[in-house]
Amino acid sequence: MGAVGNRRNLDESSARPFIRKSYEDYLEAILVIRTERGSCRNVDVAEFLGVTKPSVTKALANLTCEGLVSIVGYDVKLTSGGRRLAEETLAKHRFFEGMLLDAGVDAEVASEEACRMEHCISGDSFRRLADHLGGWREGGRDV
Questions:
Q1: What is the bridge-based pairing of β-strands 69-72 and 75-78?
Q2: Sign of torsion, CA 27 32 38 44?
Q3: Average pLDDT in the 42-51 region?
Q4: What is the pLDDT, as a whole number, of residue 131?
Q5: Alpha-carbon distance 13 to 31, whole Å?
Q6: Binning pLDDT at 50, 70 and 90, where does residue 136 land?
Q7: CB atoms within 10 A of CB 43
């Protein structure tokens, strides 16, 4: 199996468990950086995640092979599939971080723990949990 698993004969929802945690972090970082700055470079991702530039280069090569990102010049862009995964991961992060903050957890701890939580729950379970808890609104949008 490759870095993110064998996706042959898998539908979209069943393929997700094979996405590595670090790849979700990279996709989420690219989404946040592009939203804030309008563009994203390897060095921006390295700084955002606190990793080396060679690590970013290797991860982006793998994400490109998986069809989740494209690199045009120095600009790192999400494909539609990469954007979908990044938005899903970010929504989970914000949901769990918001719940932890509402419970009185320190902001830094809440962010770190939300980052771990976002990776261990499937999209279906996340949606069911959010629905069960009445949804959580971020910026006026339901997750």
A1: antiparallel
A2: negative
A3: 95
A4: 86
A5: 21
A6: low
A7: 11
Q: How confident is the model at residue 141 (pLDDT cuts 50, 70, 90)?
A: very low
Provide the CB-side half-sphere exposure for 56 (13 A, CA). Answer: 21
For residue 142, give both structure tokens: 């339901």
Q: Which of 76, 79, 77, 89 is nearest to 43 (CA)?
A: 76
> What gap in Å lies between CA 105 and CA 108, rounded to an integer?
8
Tokens coding 30? 């690219």
Radius of gyration of the chain (CA): 15
Secondary structure letter of residue 8 according to DSSP: T
pTM over 0.85: no
Helix, coil or strand: residue 142: strand
- The DSSP line for 26-81 is HHHHHHHHHHHHS---HHHHHHHHT--HHHHHHHHHHHHHTTSEEEETTEEEE-HH
pLDDT of residue 122: 84
Closest CA to 75 of 32, 24, 22, 38: 38
